[in-house]
Design a protein that fits this description.
With 274 residues, this protein is of the alpha+beta class. It has eight helices and six strands, in the order E-E-E-E-E-E-H-H-H-H-H-H-H-H. Strand 1 and strand 2 form a beta hairpin.
Length: 274
């Protein structure tokens, strides 16, 4: 539906041109690397969702940084029909605003709509978002600090947990993620489940879920994300952090979190004994 995507710098803006049926609702993404598949949208920034008027859109990103763009129809995104083709609806080569071309302060465009599928995806790297760069650390995340009362409660739970070794529960998907997503935050989470959780890419799942949770989400969507983050942590041996994630999801998903909470408590009990 959308094609002939091109972009060029003009002053302190990047002008994106494209071909689309008149008055089509479109969603524009910006990334620091090529956007060639649906999973790449997770690392891209949603620039705007808007109704096409003149087959062009002006973006005002941070100067001096290479950017790639992709544009899709909002109806296709809502239906889960994502087709990305370089040179058609995705840029094959980067474009940037030269730093010396900017005569006044940086300007960021605001989304033209706050309806689904906003916001799909997560925070971009600090260099392209204007904030501090994210720290990359291949080691385990730092241990979460808790109050003495919480530590005591954990100890009581461990003491009361079953003494027999509990096997890891089977990987399960929550009911909402067994059906086609409707768009918005549901679609963003469904991509993480498909691309990371089902593929057992636990490190990638932890990274994407933490980015997903860094934005404001609805209570139930947040609970689902905490559940899947618990799965990823439990599968990499971070039982203590997984326990807190499952607790965050328990109110909405008591039956799904119960076997996992029992499992991580049993794992923590075994570690205390060793």
């Amino acid at each position: 539906m959308v094609g002939s995507l091109s972009a060029k710098a003009k002053g302190d803006a990047i002008v994106i041109s494209y071909a689309a049926p008149p008055k089509t609702r479109l969603v524009l993404y910006r990334g620091g690397s090529p956007i060639t598949r649906a999973a790449d949208l997770l690392d891209a920034t949603l620039v705007a969702a808007f109704v096409d008027k003149d087959s062009s859109f002006s973006d005002f990103p941070v100067p001096g940084v290479d950017y790639y763009y992709a544009i899709l129809g909002e109806d296709d995104l809502k239906a889960g029909r994502i087709s990305i083709t370089a040179g058609s609806n995705s840029l094959g080569s980067p474009v940037q605003v030269r730093a010396q071309a900017v005569s006044s302060g940086f300007v960021e465009t605001q989304p033209a709509s706050r309806t689904p599928p906003l916001p799909y995806f997560l925070m971009e790297d600090g260099a392209s978002g204007g904030g501090p760069a994210l720290q990359q650390d291949d080691g385990p995340p730092p241990t979460r600090a808790v109050s003495p009362e919480t530590e005591k409660a954990i100890g009581l739970l461990l003491a009361a947990s079953p003494q027999a070794r509990i096997p890891m529960p089977q990987l399960g998907i929550l009911p909402e993620d067994r059906a086609a997503p409707t768009g918005g935050e549901d679609y963003a989470l469904s991509i993480i489940v498909t691309e990371k959780i089902l593929a057992k890419d636990w490190a990638g799942a932890q990274d994407q879920l933490r980015k997903y949770l860094s934005l404001n989400r609805g209570p139930k969507a947040s609970a689902r994300a905490h559940f899947y983050l618990g799965l990823a942590l439990a599968n990499t041996g971070s039982s203590r952090d997984a326990f807190f994630e499952f607790l965050s999801a328990r109110d909405f998903y008591p039956s799904d979190t119960k076997p996992w909470i029992e499992y991580v408590l049993g794992t923590l009990r075994d570690l205390q004994k060793s």
